[in-house]
Design brief:
Elements lengths: L18 H5 L1 H11 L10 E6 L3 H9 L11 E7 L16 E7 L10 H17 L3 E3 L6 H8 L1 H14 L21 H13 L1
Antiparallel strand pairs: 1-3, 1-4, 2-3
Length: 201
């Protein structure tokens, strides 16, 4: 599998594990931290989707400059085929046939850098991601205009239509500040009545 790849052979590091252990590798980190009574520290995790055409630039600006040697957690990098992605989901991915999931799963350990320093580094990394037309997975925007820019016009329009259709009073998921909640939402019995009327008609 490695034969056709171009890389510096002396830098190769590999380990053979079962498929399940590979999929469960982040949980192994959790178990290790729990054994040291360190799991309850803050976890300023950062997940992004980076277009394949931008990965070389992302490497030079982030991996080679912003990411410290003592990172405090695993880094996941792997490619995704866009045609395998379910476009009906609300997650937004780059507009390229191949993009990369890049995940920085850091833990604010007592022996490492402080939480504020990690959050500042995350903010700098996100700026690079946005400049390269990448997408933040599970973003924490606070304004509607930020969400519109994140989704893009077409997907945002469809998202709003679905919201008005299935949750017109903005009861579900209020924490993202995407939609203004109705100040007088219907009671549960009213919703059930509306649902019953709709089904009967």
């Amino acid at each position: 599998m490695l034969a056709p790849l171009r890389f510096i052979r002396s830098l190769l590091f590999s380990t053979d594990v079962s498929y399940f252990k590979f999929l469960n590798r982040v949980h192994d980190v959790e178990l290790s931290l729990r054994a040291q009574q360190l799991w309850d520290v803050p976890h300023p995790w950062l997940d992004m989707f980076i277009p394949a055409s931008s990965m070389t630039t992302f490497d030079s600006l982030v991996f080679q400059q912003l990411v410290p040697v003592e990172f405090g957690g695993p880094i996941l990098v792997y490619p995704v085929n866009r045609n395998k992605w379910d476009r009906r989901t609300a997650a937004v991915v780059p507009d390229e046939e191949v993009f990369y999931l890049v995940a920085f799963l850091r833990n604010a350990l007592p022996s490492g850098p402080g939480l504020e320093s990690m959050l500042d580094e995350n903010a700098r990394i996100l700026r690079v991601c946005e400049d390269l037309n990448g997408k933040h997975y599970l973003p924490k925007y606070t304004e509607e205009e930020q969400w519109k820019r994140h989704f893009g016009c077409e997907k945002w329009t469809a998202f709003v239509q679905h919201k008005h259709m299935f949750d017109p009073h903005a009861i579900l998921a209020p924490g993202q500040n995407m939609f203004r909640r109705n100040q007088n939402p219907p009671r549960l019995d009213q919703l059930l009545l509306l649902r019953s009327d709709s089904a009967s008609s």
